[in-house]
Amino acid sequence: MQHIYQQGRNGYTLLLLHGTGGTEQDLIGLAKEIDAGANILSVRGQVLENGMPRFFRRVAEGVFDMEDLRFRTDELYQFVQEAAWQYDFNPSKVIAIGYSNGANIAGNLLFRHKNALLGAILHHPMVPDRDVTLPSLANVHVWIGAGTNDFMCSPQESEELEKLLQEAGATVETAWFNNGHQLTMSEVQAAKAWYKANIK
Ligand code: MLT
Fold it and tell me: What Å distances lie between residue 33 and 26, 27, 62, 76, CA to CA?
């Protein structure tokens, strides 16, 4: 998978997953803001929708191709495990940072793979899959940046995601913003404060 790896110094690895139409460059600055000492593994989505990179196919806006989502999620999981071996980072200290489409595949990593992530910062995620039994997510820490007026994801769906993750044992904090589906600097600052308090 096309990606960027940057070696850090504190043993944590930030797995960066961009939104639709983004690239592996997009979230690097944000990651440095969250934890300047962490390794960075930033991946480019392999699916193209009218030339726009994504992490999995969709049938329409907000309607996922579930078979492709599951396949691509497992592929991403494998990729991270192999990258850990190749770059010699600890696969049990990986924290995903995803926005929109990237947050959805990060959420699905949690839904399908026990121990895939130590934590996740999910900016404007949806419920990725309603037909799966989540693994135990004890000791997993999740922060959700949700929108009170996000056209892609209703507040009810954000609350549903929070509940599903909590029921699986994850510690979840949801912060609410009023900027539609956008990722703003105040949201990044809130995620950073949560990261400092919960991850390191
Ligand atoms: C998705 O397909 O993941 C969601 O519709 C969010 C998006 O990428 O716009």
Answer: 13, 10, 29, 24
